[in-house]
């Protein structure tokens, strides 16, 4: 029975540990909090899980909330006029498949309990580098799945793949009830305020039931950059309302009566997006493998974090099963990471980085075309589900023009063959 340790009880670590335990591996999962502490703690992020990651969960029986969660399959994009609180572009596009969002406190606490009940070994410990070295000696394979903790610093920055050297957005997030829902545009609402930042909202399943997540992405130092962790929950909520009234008035009316779902339903912070080397050498001489946002840490602007974690779990599982009796050496680690990079992380990183940068004229022109050509709106919306569908054509004016002509020539709904299959909860 092969021994595998996983550090971190998030989307990737929990999924992989649970499936490996189910398949008969001897697994140990390290979490810095108990399931009760996770459930009653602060929200961890906003997230939307798209079809491929959901398929992996369905395959292995990790999809416990499909009958309860609010489903969506539309992305509404609104772009403000620079310097004015007015709309310049607005349209709705459809994703190919439905998506869902679940409060990670609910999801991770439940999955951690399930893993424990399956016989998986859970150790509650905030693992440091010295601990990691000891754990590595005790296991055939050790995987680090904790993206922002101290031990992620053991993985060297990949200078060739890393674009940024400082945070690109100041983040403010909250989960609320009382938002007026637009049933004709039920899904992710994306608002871009040029030169200031972005605002997203989406329906979420929490333990209190269906609610809405609000995510503010402020350009550092700008007028929207007001969130920090010293704010009281009510101060955080009021700042969010004021930002909407000032910069995004078309969303403000829906949010006048919002209230936090609990006193832990706010989050603020900022971090530098970075790509790290896939493995780190421990003092004992063995290497540990990084997973998901430990080694591919993107800004949440494109909604790719949890999806990358799910895809990474799927790809790493495949690599582990194929290894059979072979060693989990550095060559193998590099190989499974490169597969993850090629199949998922590269395109999602390019998409995230593109959204963090001021859009060039040809991209703005493409987005504006979405108001007249539904297939253009669908094409861009599908990028959140499958970022690779944007590249390489969107990188150049010529490629974008050619893609626009192709989409204009197709019948409405010609990309996916379905336009209105909303599911409400």
How would you sum up this structure, described in words?
This protein is of the alpha/beta class. Helices cover 35% and strands 22% of the residues. It folds into three domains: 206 residues, FAD/NAD(P)-binding domain, CATH 3.50.50; 133 residues, D-Amino Acid Oxidase, Chain A, domain 2 (2-Layer Sandwich); 50 residues, no CATH class. The strands form three sheets. Strands 3, 4, 7, 8, 9, 10, 11 and 12 form an eight-stranded mixed β-sheet that branches. Strand 1, helix 1 and strand 2 form a beta-alpha-beta unit. Helix 8 packs antiparallel against helix 9 and helix 10 packs parallel to helix 12. The radius of gyration is 21 Å and the shape is globular.
Write the layout of secondary structure elements.
Layout: E1 3-7, H1 11-22, E2 26-31, H2 35-39, H3 51-59, E3 71-80, E4 87-100, H4 104-117, E5 121-124, H5 129-138, E6 141-144, E7 170-177, E8 188-193, E9 197-206, E10 209-218, H6 233-247, H7 249-252, E11 259-260, E12 266-269, E13 274-275, E14 279-281, E15 287-290, E16 296-297, H8 305-323, H9 330-356, H10 361-369, H11 374-385, H12 397-408
Parallel strand pairs: 1-2, 1-6, 2-5, 3-8, 6-15
Antiparallel strand pairs: 3-4, 7-10, 7-11, 7-12, 8-9, 9-10, 13-16, 14-15
Helix pairs in contact: 1-4, 1-8, 3-8, 8-9, 10-12
């Amino acid at each position: 029975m092969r021994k595998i340790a996983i550090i971190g009880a998030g989307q990737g670590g929990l999924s992989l540990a649970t499936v490996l335990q189910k398949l008969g591996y001897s697994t140990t999962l390290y979490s810095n909090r108990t399931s009760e502490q996770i459930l009653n703690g602060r929200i961890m992020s906003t997230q939307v899980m798209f079809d491929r990651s959901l398929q992996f969960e369905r395959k292995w029986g990790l999809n416990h909330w499909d009958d309860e969660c609010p489903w969506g399959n539309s992305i509404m994009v609104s772009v403000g006029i620079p310097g004015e609180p007015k709309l310049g572009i607005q349209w709705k596009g459809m994703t190919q498949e439905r998506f869902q969002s679940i409060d990670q406190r609910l999801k991770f606490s439940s999955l951690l309990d399930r893993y424990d009940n399956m016989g998986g070994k859970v150790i509650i410990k905030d693992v440091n580098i010295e601990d990691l070295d000891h754990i590595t000696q005790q296991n055939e394979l050790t995987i680090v799945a904790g993206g922002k903790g101290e031990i992620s610093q053991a993985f060297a920055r990949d200078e060739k793949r890393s674009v940024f050297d400082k945070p690109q957005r100041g983040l403010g997030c909250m989960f609320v009830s009382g938002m007026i829902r637009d049933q004709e545009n039920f899904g992710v609402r994306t608002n871009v305020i040029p030169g200031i930042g972005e605002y997203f909202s989406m329906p979420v399943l929490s333990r209190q039931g269906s609610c809405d997540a609000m995510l503010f992405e402020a350009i550092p130092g700008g007028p929207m950059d007001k969130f920090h962790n010293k704010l009281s929950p009510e101060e955080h909520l009021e700042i969010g309302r004021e930002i909407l009234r000032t910069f995004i008035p078309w969303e403000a009316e829906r949010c006048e009566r919002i209230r936090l779902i609990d006193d832990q339903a706010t989050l603020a912070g900022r971090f530098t997006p970075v790509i790290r080397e896939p493995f780190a050498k421990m003092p004992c001489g063995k290497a540990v493998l990084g997973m998901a946002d430990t080694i591919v840490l993107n800004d949440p602007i494109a909604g790719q974090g949890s999806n990358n974690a799910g895809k990474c779990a799927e790809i790493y599982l495949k690599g582990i099963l194929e290894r059979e009796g072979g060693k989990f050496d550095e060559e193998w680690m590099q190989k499974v990471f490169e597969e993850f990079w090629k199949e998922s992380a590269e395109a999602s990183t390019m998409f995230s980085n593109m959204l963090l940068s001021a859009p060039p004229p040809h991209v703005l022109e493409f987005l504006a075309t979405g108001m007249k050509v539904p297939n253009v709106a669908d094409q861009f919306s599908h990028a959140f589900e499958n970022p690779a569908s944007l590249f390489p054509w969107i990188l150049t004016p010529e490629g974008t023009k050619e893609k626009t002509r192709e989409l204009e020539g197709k019948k409405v709904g010609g990309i996916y063959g379905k336009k209105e299959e909303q599911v409400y909860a």
